[in-house]
Amino acid sequence: MARVTGIGGVFLRSRDPVRLAAWYRDNLGVPMSEKGTVTFHWLDTATNDHPGTTTMALFAQDTEYIGEPHQRAMLNLRVDDLPSLMAKLKARGVEVLPDTEDSEFGRFGWCVDPEGNRIELWEPAEGM
Fold first, then answer.
1. Could you tell me which of 66, 79, 65 has the C-alpha nearest to residue 122?
2. Any alpha helices (H) in the chain, and if so which ranges?
3. pLDDT confidence of 4, banded at 50, 70, 90?
4. Which positions carry the signal peptide feature in this UniProt record (predicted)?
5. How far is CA 91 from CA 18, 49, 117, in A?
6. CATH number of the domain that residue 57 is part of
7. What are 21-68's pLDDT values in tens digits?
8. Given this model, what pLDDT does residue 75 score?
9. Is 110 exposed, middle or buried (0-12, 13-18, 19+ CB in 10 A)?
10. By the 8 A CB rule, do 101 and 82 touch?
11. What is the Cα gyration radius of the chain?
12. What counts of helices (H) and strands (E) characterise the chain?
């Protein structure tokens, strides 16, 4: 069954990613890298075959990756069968963006919620 299996990441637009990363580090104790990323590892449910992670990443204000300029954040949702889920969403009339991407991290596709927010769907590569 095609379904979401967890949150793969949260991505935020930022006018100054370096400054915002420092703010998250300094004020909330989030161990952000200098590039503005942090990956949290799932200790309770991780296995050697499926370690599971959640990533937070900061993007420049003018990025097109997150969607339309008014969208401040984008959910990245882990999925177990990207092609089937995207087909199911299309069949339900959900706006599904036509492009997908394959990388060393896995397969990515995108859909848009009813309020116009772009959502990234991620089927992790084996062992992620």
1. 79
2. 17-28, 82-91
3. confident
4. none
5. 41, 32, 19
6. 3.10.180.10
7. 988 888 878 899 988 898 887 776 677 777 777 888 899 999 988 888
8. 84
9. buried
10. no
11. 15
12. 2, 8
DSSP 60-96: ETT-STTSSTT--EEEEEEES-HHHHHHHHHHTT-EE
Domain count, the chain: 1
pLDDT in tens, 80-115: 899 999 999 999 999 999 999 999 999 999 998 988
Model pLDDT, residue 121: 92
- The rounded distance, in Å, linking the Cα atoms of 55 and 76 is 9
User: 115 lies in which domain range?
Assistant: 4-124
CA–CA separation, 125 vs 46, rounded Å? 15
Q: What pTM was estimated for this model as a whole?
A: 0.73
